[in-house]
Design goal:
The chain is mainly alpha-helical and 263 residues long. The protein has 14 helices and no strands.
């Protein structure tokens, strides 16, 4: 969860100003958390509050928490359709295939004992808005990768699973992707790229630098990559402390509870 938030904050200033290099200051004064962080926190709190409850209960909690946090931070950078959803009295899914489902799902990769539970809860977190097959696939792929990595699977084993189950293509290296890669908010155009940044990384910070260097929707790409990197490498204490300085106390409290509950 904190890995996704770290990626969001670090990538926030490059979303519309791609740098195409790994050589940049990790944290800058103008960095901030965006909708990726807000919704990551919202989903985490909903899943924790409804631990062991039915799909119906979880869905209701997801809508409630996402609307609460979204309206608490109305200028975090939401897309137009999602912004409308946040202010709707009876919000319904709108068949989105966007990467919003993938960037907010990281808590689901940590909170459940089995891969089957992880996949089902990841699907529920997506379907409240992103009920297009690609939106659901993106969320499930990210949550499954986190589950496998924190369960001791290697990056290569995780890659083989994700490729086999979800069909993502990992044949291109970062060096081949980077030159022509542009802004793409679809799951299919950002989740495999973010995962490639992790698969080619040598540590948590290196993963985030590689993710940001792709350009495009840099905060979300780095959030997705960071969520995998956290599960495999952990997060250096210095980076943890720095990330906390960008979060408000209510967000930090949700994260503390998450640390107590995660498997």
């Amino acid at each position: 969860m904190l890995g996704a938030i770290a990626g969001d904050i670090i990538g926030s200033i490059y979303e519309h100003n791609p740098i195409k290099t790994t050589d940049f200051p990790l944290f800058q004064e103008s960095c901030r958390f965006t909708d990726d962080t807000v919704m990551t926190v919202a989903v985490a709190r909903a899943l924790m509050e409804q631990d062991g409850k039915s799909r119906h209960d979880v869905t209701r909690a997801l809508i409630r928490e996402m609307q609460y946090w979204g309206n608490k931070y109305p200028h975090a950078g939401y897309g137009g359709r999602f912004s409308e959803w946040l202010h709707t009295e009876r919000p319904l899914p709108y068949n989105s295939w966007g990467n919003g489902s993938a960037m907010r799902v990281s808590a689901a990769g940590w909170l459940y004992e089995t891969l089957e539970q992880t996949l089902s809860h990841a699907q529920w977190t997506a379907e409240v808005t992103h009920n297009h097959p690609e939106g659901i696939k993106g969320a499930q792929a990210v949550a499954a990768a986190i589950y496998l990595l924190r369960s001791g699977k290697s990056g290569e084993e995780t890659k083989v699973y994700i490729r086999g189950v979800f069909g993502y293509d990992f044949r291109k290296t970062l060096g081949e992707i980077r030159p022509a890669y542009g802004f793409d908010v679809s799951c299919q155009g950002s989740v495999p790229q973010a995962m490639t940044a992790f698969f080619e990384s040598s540590g948590f910070e290196d993963c985030l630098r590689k993710a940001v260097s792709l350009g495009g929707d840099s905060d979300t790409v780095a959030a997705i990559a960071g969520s995998l990197a956290e599960a495999y490498y952990g997060i250096p204490e210095e980076i943890q402390r720095k990330v906390h300085t960008y979060m408000d106390e209510e967000m930090i409290e949700v994260y503390r509870k998450f640390l107590e509950m995660r498997r």
